[in-house]
Amino acid sequence: MLLGHLVKDMSTYFFVAFGIVLGGSILGGIAALLTRQPPFHTMYELAFKLKIWGMVGALGGTFDSFMQIERIFQEGDMSPVIKQIIFIVSAFIGADTGTRLIHWLVHGDPI
């Protein structure tokens, strides 16, 4: 049951970060098209700029996870630290996957 809850939370962090990068890049490309800018170039640049914000958005909108890790280190209980690191890695993988997907859609070659 504990593992199922962890996997559910990991997938939530992954897809939130993925969605922020993918959705922001696609909508930015549409805005670029409407303003007569190169949409693919704009999407490509936005994907890399939104990568960190995808992670921050997935982790709760602030760097609260990092502050929680610091507090846990001071208290000496390592189990929550591992859980937070797993969530940070999951959000990073989601944001990176979104960036790679946009790169592949724009250029056609995988990174």
From TrEMBL:
What are the TM regions of this chain, as residue ranges?
12-32
Determine if Membrane is one of this entry's keywords. yes
InterPro entries in the record: Spore_YtrH
Q: Which UniProt keywords apply?
A: Membrane, Transmembrane, Transmembrane helix
The domain of life is Bacteria
* Record-given protein name: Sporulation protein
Q: Which organism is it from?
A: Aneurinibacillus migulanus (Bacillus migulanus)
